[in-house]
Specification:
Chain lengths: ~200, ~110
Amino acid sequence: MVEPVSPLGAAWKPGAYPNTAGETGLVLSETRPGSIVQVAAWPGREKTLIAAIKSVTGLALADGAGAGRVDGAKAAFGIAPGTFVVVDQKEGLAATLGAAIGVDTGTVTDLSHGRTALRLAGPKAEWVLAKFFALDFSQTAFPPGAGRATSHHDIFAQIQRSGAEQFDLYVFRSFARAFWTALCHASEEAGYRVG
Amino acid sequence: MLITCPYCGPRDLAEFSYQGDANRPRPDQHDTDQARWNAYVYDRANPAGPHREYWQHAGGCRKHLLIVRSTLTHAIESVAFAGAPGATPQAPRRAAKGRTKTGPAKGKKP
């Protein structure tokens, strides 16, 4: 099998970077999923698409804005009306979803090579993300599993809360190094660890 | 300024891009009347008050929206998905005489 190459390259510097008080408020990492797929339903076919996602991944999505679920190696969340990002640590999800979603239901776009997946975890994850995005990151407004599509200047970011203190960000692969570096700078105040 | 996207909820103006006046019904593609096409391309009501306009939530769900915004206060009266029932272009509202006319009346010298 071909070994995937991280787009972070030399910007990936594992280690601990505590703040001046010696604290480490969050951990930054790259989840490197084998499959990142965007699926979209034709108008009126949303429920059929949601059923197809469930049959392939086992993730039962609610029919609501930004609804999502996380289950171990798999995750899915809504980013627009009838449009979802589906992620699997294994490769081949686009082919499986393509077989399950008919041309009369919607479209399947394989973005595995077009996005990079970054993870922020720790008690300061909300604080650091709030520096980047004008969103309410509190758990009541952004519950675990839910997704949001937003942007930091011109870098689009799709965010899923994958845990109480954990967020997964999907950004364009070509912006990965710049965005990652900005993320590290923003985390200096809280102290962070890479890896 | 916040715009409440029907899908994403309230979001900062920076995530949206203006897509133009939504008061211009496009003439039929077979229409050869130059005055109608000229009016479609160039004439704007330019009202001081509520204005129907298209926006795109370019930094979010990327959907096109039909927004009624006051050009005086920037207050937003309504937001709907463009293409939703009732969200089609409408003819310009008749504005107060002499306030918003964008060009000379026909037959009169400028």
